[in-house]
Structure formats: C-alpha cells, structure tokens
Amino acid sequence: MTHYWNNVLIKPDSTIRDALEIINSEALRVVLVVNSEQHLIGVITDGDIRRGLLSNLSLDDVVSGVMNTSPVTAKKGTSRQRLVEIMEKEGILSIPLLDDSGVVVGLETLHSALNAPDYPNPVFIMAGGFGTRLRPLTDHCPKPMLKIGDKPILEIVVRSFIKAGFTNFYISTHYMPEQIRNHFGDGSSLGAKITYVHEEEPLGTGGALGLLPDDLPEDLPLIMINGDVLTKVDFQRLLEFHTDNEADATICVREYDYQIPYGVINGEGNKIVSMVEKPIQRFFVNAGIYVVSPEIIRSVPENHRIDMPTLLEQHMQKDQNILMFPVHEYWLDIGRMDDFNRAQVDIYTLGLN
Questions:
Q1: What residues contact 284, with CB distance under 8 A and at least 6 apart?
Q2: Whole-model pTM over 0.85
C-alpha cells in the first residue's frame, strides 16, 4: 500500500487548482475527495482535470465539477494480486481502499503493487517435523520437501515470501536436514539468503526461537510460518497490521466451522427453553503463521522446549499486546494425506507453483 496517500486527500470545496497542485507535487497522479469524516466522495485524475478544462471550467472552480463520483474502490485487506487484477481489468492506475463504513484507509497503485518493496525482516520457517501422518511418503523424505506439482512444499513457501519482498530466511531443521540443505544451499540461487537452525532434539515451534543467532535485526519483527502451510495470505499486509497496531505478537487465525450433527436442547431445570437443529459453531483456529517482536524472541532460552501457543500465553499473562490477524485468503495445512492430495489439485489454480 502506498504510504503517502494522506497527502492526496482534498475537501469537496477545494478548487481544481488545488487538486492540480497535488497531482503535480505528488507521484501518485490522483486526488481523493473526502468529507469531514474521511468518507470518499470522488476521485480526480489529471485526465479528469483536462476534460474539465476542455468543458470551459476554470482552475478556480470547485473540484465537484471534475471528480469521478463513482470510482472503482476496494475493501481494506484485499490482496495485492486481486488489486492488480481489478486495476488491469478496469484500466486504472490506482484504487482507493475503504473500510466497511466507506472511510478511506489507503491507496494502492498499480506500480507499487507490481513492484514489491524489499523487507529486511527475517522469515523463520519451521521445517523439522517428521510428517508421520503422511507416511510412507515421509519415510525417506522430510515433509516440507514433498513435491506439490513440480516443487517441494518448502520451496513454494520460500518463493511466496520472495515474491512479497522478503529475502532473509532462517529454516529450522531436524528430520533429514541434509535434503533441505542440499536443495536450497545458501539461497543465492533464489536471490535470497538462507541460514539453517538445526534442532538436535525437537524443541517445538516456540523453542526453535531460542536457537536463532544473536545477529538478528534488533528492532524488526520476525515472521514465522510452519513449513507445511500453503497460503496466499498477504505477508506485506500482515506485517503492516502488526506494526501499525504496535503488537508484541500477531497470530494468523482461520475461521473454522463445526456443525453439531444433532438437535441441541437448551433448558432451565427440566423445562426446555429452546431447540436448535444441527447448529453450526464458529471458531478461530491457529493458522501456523506468526509475527513476533524481538523481545519475545529474546525471552526464549537456548534449547528450551515450548510451543508457540504456550509461549504467547505466557506473554499474554504479562499483559503484552498479542493480536490476531484473520486469514481469508487460501490456506491449507498439509498434515494429512487428503490435504496433500487436495494441494496437488489446488496448486495449478493458485499461481503459487
């Protein structure tokens, strides 16, 4: 998302001259017209101003005479890939991002969406599991190295981060680590840097943090992900969410529905007060993707076994800011054979391979 979008906001009683000065001084080539509550009223481009002038409007007329009152917009949280698709389909170079009430919360441009910034934040991938539920496939191959389509799961994960602008990787290994090292090397063939962290004994997702080297960036949050997760989550927006909300840790969550296969009876004593046939319960479940602050990383001693949920519960008890980030994009935890088979079908429609 373009970080200087606040500079292109303008009020409806501003003049066309005011709008033109913003377009000429800012690189975004667009002006967003908003009311006092920051609700979007219209959008103005250089072409709109030129057409207004050709219709005998003067630069001192108000912007309502030239603005597009029905611009293409998108909801906050829309993935970059989807925004690019919309802009290319509509033939536009930018798209305002709105919250549910119509308030402007950002601006995405085609240029910034196609040219991902470089993020120095480290990415830590958990790739040491045994994959026992995928035997016999994992008898001679670590689960992250099983191929989905024509690439190992782990390579698909790494490439998805590289595409989003992340190139500094740490990979935690335990089971058959040589296969992972031999495939990726130092990461230079992918345009990345890969450092390996080996667990002599399984330490859990949280415990692996204690093995990270001391030369991690002191002030940058780290993204963690299980090495068997396929997802199209927008890592850039995830990091922005974590940073903007000053979180100590952010857990990606996925909505999970469970339908009770019976009619549920609610009562008071022996009196029935309601009956619901096969109700659906909705929960948020852990998606195996985290953003953690350096402070939390430093809190894990070397060779200390602990899982991430337990670690983050400890920090919640200290009133630290632990947030959740709902994942509405594609997400698949390849833990069982039916997940593995589903991934083989999905990969060709996801653009991940």
A1: 253, 254, 255, 256, 324, 326
A2: no
HSE (CB half, 13 Å, CA atoms) of 34? 22
pLDDT in tens, 65-75: 889 888 888 88
The topology under which CATH files domain 5-114 is CBS-domain (3.10.580)
Q: What is the pLDDT of residue 183?
A: 92
Q: Is the separation of the CB atoms in 280 and 257 below 8 Å? A: yes
DSSP at 63: G
* Every domain of the chain and the residues it spans: 5-114, 123-350
Say if residues 64 and 18 touch (Cβ distance below 8 Å). Answer: no
> At which residue do the structure tokens 């330490």 appear?
203
Mean local confidence (pLDDT), 330-348: 87
Q: Where does 123-350 sit in CATH, by number?
A: 3.90.550.10
pLDDT at 112 (0 to 100)? 59
In one letter, which amino acid is 72? V
349: amino acid identity, one letter = T
Contact (CB, 8 A) for 211 and 197: yes
Give one DSSP letter per residue of 149-162, joined into a string: TTEEHHHHHHHHHH
pLDDT in tens, 148-166: 988 899 999 999 999 888 9
Q: Which DSSP letter does residue 118 get?
A: P
Vertex 316 angle, CA 313 and 320, to 5°: 145
The CA distance from 269 to 210, in Å, is 52
Running DSSP on this structure, what letter comes out for residue 28? S
Alpha carbon distance 314, 285 (integer Å): 19
